[in-house]
Design goal:
Elements lengths: L17 H22 L7 H6 L16 H7 L18 H11 L2 H9 L7 H6 L13 H13 L10 H6 L16 H25 L4 E3 L4 E3 L10 H12 L3 H14 L7 E3 H19 L2 H14 L13 E3 L5 E2 L9 E2 H4 L3 H11 L3 H15 L10 E2 L6 E3 L1 E2 L6 H13 L5 H17 L1 E3 L5 E3 L1 E3 L2 E3 L1 E3 L5 H8 L8 H20 L9 E3 L21 H13 L3 H17 E2 L2 E2 L18 H14 L11 E3 L5 E3 L10 H4 L5
Bound molecules: 1-deoxymannojirimycin (DMJ).
1-deoxymannojirimycin (DMJ) binds next to helix 23.
Length: 655
């Protein structure tokens, strides 16, 4: 039919001239090529496609066990600089990135959005994506199967998000929950672990009954507490508990928590929040729940909150102030902080979460903000190599010379070494700053008491204050996890220091009547590891001491750390457990302490999680894959081959 329409050409083609035959053949071959090409645009499910084409390579490979994964990954090429490497960006329109940034903050954020260098969406990007990495583990136990089922069913982005959760999971070296959910084979350890789980259930059930949706449970008055730390955000205990419930296999409770986050966690609050607390508990808690489960709702909420926090960086130096109004984005310094200064442990404890916000959004702004903080701190002159606790966000100068590895300083140091570990050991700037700081701390602050206890004193303009806070007791674990990557000849020394500090912190517990440690203990006036002031004698369910036990157990497998953890559990049961939950106590030096009526959310997020991990096998949340934020929320190591965006890698470090 078609041929008849061509003038001078018969239907059979028998009477065609040579040139006409050539044109005809050319046309025919063009048509065949077109038809074949069209096959590629058919969906994968189309039968005709499967008939003509082999299976697509991007399909998920079968799950298979690989016990050599750890060694293999260690051999991977680390010679290239993480921070200069360019990873192909996943397809996204720059307009979308702009929209995210513009919505989140005033003028300067718009400028940031314009700086975004994410490549335009095109087919080339597809072909440049790194080849999918095979999953390196098998999942074969009932609880894990159930968790895995939930995870897999929700891992495709429901909100059109570009983050490839499946790819992320395939890049983990080990199963998240171990082969048997970290269940120890030794009956006594298993029993102790069960005890911790029971404590979690008890805390959770009472929170649910008496304080659901509030921030904390007040177990004596049997009601909830909201307070003003989170700027009107609610449910701090719920968000802080998500990952603990998940790793303990408390799936029903986890579902309740998830459904509350989905339906009730309202980010449209207009109150004044602590940037630090909102970041470590809410952003950290939500991100961690997302990475563990793949449930999109957690990522969505984390991003929503992350956007609300962005205006806080609009200061002359980019160093944020401590308080932010979550509605207006206005921020200011704490009234008690000298001369409008910002606090080292607050602005220095954003890095892990903000790098992950970039990872899940593809928006480099988050990483840029925290890299800027890092660069400011790297450049500034430091007295004796030490970092004072107060810095002006306007001038970028130190405001006074108080140095502490406890409150006001603590998690800044923690985030340096953890940034290095979370970057798959590529963040050289963080590494250098951490080991330099540790050296300065050792030279200027580390002391040995007459009784042989090692402690880290505080420093006030060159004068030592022989006091160590409970908060500073996290440093045993921190120095322990950093020991492997310092100078090889320092390794043993760092492990010894970590063990000595953990021992001192244990002594601060052992020397009390309750066997729980005080808020601060001193090494003067004839005492050692003991509180001398009434105002330092309280214990508010803090985690730092058991946190160090957990790390030191994983690093050494010395049974004393489990014994010390068990002592703490017994003391918690005896002095902090009341009818309707757990409470802090006002004086650890008396056997009849009065309760403070507060079940802190970090008790569920940290204290109970670290204790549970202490009595679990090391393969539950393996440290090769996970780094805990300062609220004990696990965030994954970002491996170059698995980076979704590589945006963090494009940010220049100023040495
Ligand atoms: C937690 O919120 C975090 O561990 C933070 O780093 C310090 N304070 C509490 C627990 O003591």
């Amino acid at each position: 039919m078609f041929f008849r329409k061509l003038p001078g050409v018969s239907a059979s083609g028998m009477g065609l001239r040579l040139s006409q035959k050539f044109i005809f053949l050319l046309f025919l071959s063009g048509l065949v090529t077109l038809c074949f090409g069209a096959l590629f645009f058919l969906p994968d499910s189309a039968r005709i496609k499967r008939f003509f084409l082999p299976r697509a390579e991007s399909q998920t490979p079968a799950v298979e066990p690989d016990t050599t994964a750890k060694q293999d990954s260690k051999k991977s090429d680390k010679s290239h600089d993480h921070f200069k490497e360019i990873i192909p960006a996943k397809a996204v329109t720059s307009a979308k990135i702009k929209a995210i940034s513009q919505k989140s903050s005033p003028t300067s954020e718009k400028k940031d959005a314009e700086k975004v260098t994410v490549k335009k969406q095109d087919n080339q990007n597809e072909s440049k994506r790194p080849t999918p990495v095979k999953p390196r583990f098998a999942v074969n136990k009932p609880v894990e199967q159930e968790m895995e089922r939930r995870t897999v069913s929700s891992k495709k982005g429901k909100h059109g998000s570009p983050f490839d959760y499946e790819k992320f999971r395939q890049c983990l070296q080990k199963p998240i929950l171990g082969v048997e959910n970290g269940q120890p084979s030794d009956p006594q350890t298993r029993e102790r672990r069960e005890k911790v789980k029971e404590m979690m259930k008890f805390s959770w059930d009472n929170y649910k009954t008496y304080a659901w949706g509030k921030n904390e449970l007040q177990p004596l008055t049997r009601n909830g507490h909201v307070g003003n730390m989170f700027g009107g955000l609610r449910g701090a205990s719920i968000v802080d508990s998500l990952d603990t419930l998940y790793i303990m296999g408390m799936l029903e409770e986890f579902e309740e928590a998830k459904s509350w986050v989905e339906k009730e966690l309202d980010m449209n609050s207009n109150g004044e929040a602590s940037l630090f607390e909102v970041n470590i508990r809410y952003v950290g808690g939500l991100l961690s729940a997302y990475y563990l489960t793949g449930e999109e709702v957690f990522k969505k909420k984390a991003i929503e909150l992350g956007e609300k926090l962005l205006p806080v960086f609009n200061t002359p130096t980019g160093i944020p102030r401590g308080v932010i109004n979550l509605g207006s984005g206005t921020s200011w310094s704490w009234g008690w902080a000298s001369a409008g200064s910002s606090i080292l442990a607050e602005f220095g404890t954003l890095h892990l979460e903000f790098v992950h916000l970039t990872e899940v959004t593809g928006n480099p702004t988050y990483s840029e903000k925290v890299m800027n903080i890092r660069n400011v701190l790297n450049k500034i002159e430091k007295p004796h190599g030490l970092y004072p606790n107060f810095l002006s966000p306007v001038t970028g100068n130190w405001v006074q010379h108080h140095v502490s590895i406890g409150g006001l300083g603590d998690s800044f140091y923690e985030y340096l070494i953890k940034s290095y570990l979370m970057s798959d050991k590529r963040d050289e700037q963080a590494k250098k700053m951490y080991y330099d700081a540790l050296e300065a701390i050792e030279t200027n602050l580390v002391q040995k008491s007459p009784g042989g206890l090692t402690y880290i004193a505080e420093w006030r303009g060159g004068v030592l204050d022989h006091k160590m806070g409970h908060l500073a007791c996290f440093s045993g674990g921190m120095i322990g996890i950093g020991a492997d990557d310092g100078e090889p000849e320092q390794r043993k020394h760092h492990m010894d220091l970590a063990a000595e500090i953990t021992h001192t912190c244990h002594e601060s517990y052992a020397r009390t009547a309750t066997k729980l440690g005080p808020e601060a203990f001193r090494f003067d006036s004839g005492v050692e590891a003991t509180a001398t002031r009434m105002s330092d004698r309280y214990y508010i369910l803090r985690p730092e001491v058991v946190e160090s036990y957990m790390y030191m157990w994983r690093l050494t497998h010395d049974p004393k750390y489990r014994e010390w953890g068990w002592e703490a559990i017994q003391a918690l049961e005896k002095y902090c457990r009341v009818d309707k939950g757990f409470t802090g106590i006002r004086d650890v030096y008396t056997t009849s302490p009065s309760p403070d009526n507060m079940q802190q959310s970090f008790f569920l997020a940290e204290t109970l999680k670290y204790l549970y991990l202490l009595f679990s096998d090391d393969d539950l949340l393996p440290l090769d894959d996970w780094v805990f934020n300062t609220e004990a929320h696990p965030l994954p190591v970002i491996r170059t081959e698995c980076m979704q965006w590589g945006e963090a890698g494009k940010i220049q470090q100023q040495q």
